[in-house]
Every structure is written in C-alpha cells, then in structure tokens.
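Re: the 136-residue chain
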Amino acid sequence: MLRYLPFLLVLALWIYAFIDCLNTPEQEVKHLPKVVWVIIVLLFGEVLIGPIAWLVAGRDRKATAGGSTPSAWHRNHRTEFVAPDDNPDFLKSLKDEAVPSEDVKDEALLKDWEADLRRREEELKRRENGDDPQQP
C-alpha cells in the first residue's frame, strides 16, 4: 500500500499546481505568460519540474494584509459578527414580528380557561358536599 503513496503525492501536487495556475489572475503571473505556465505544468508534471517551477517562480505570492481574503468583494464588505441579543436590528425585527392582536387573543383565551376551571372546581365541591342538584 505504501508503494502507491509517492505516486499519489506527485499526482496531488500536479493537480494543485494546475488548478492554482488556472485560477491565478494574469496580473499575478511572473516571468512567462499564463498559457505557457499551464503548458509547463501539464507537460512536466510527472517529474515534478513543472509544478515545482510554478509554485516557486510562476506566481507573485504576497501575504494579504490584515488577514483578509484575496477577493476584492470580501475586502470591501467586512462584517463584524454580533450575538443576536446585542444586535439592535435583530431585536427590532423581534418587536416588529410581535402582533398585539395575538397577545389579546391569548389573554382572552387564558381568561376563558380560568373561568371554566373555576366553574368545574365549584361543581366538584358541590358534589363532594352533597349539594349537587343533579343527583337523585
């Protein structure tokens, strides 16, 4: 099983260098045109010359400032994550969702249930005392 490991590592490096070469913008490619780098990576990939040459000399590798992502959209659209209970927009949306008519309906339903419960309790007390007019 270990005898296949070197072949798989070469293949993985070859695929990584090829995809990296294709995804690199033309402005970041150094020394040769991008098309020539793609051909070099493809032709000399089995002996690792092409992928290693691309990774070492083919691309301008700069560290991004501030740990931001390389895409311009992400640099311009930074968001600071906040817990929901600290987010005023989220709290406002909760207040907007609460419909007062539902609260009124719930309170009326609760009062009806309480009145029904009191009526049943009084009826049970009358039965226990023998005052129930429904008994023969």
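The chain has a mean pLDDT of 78.
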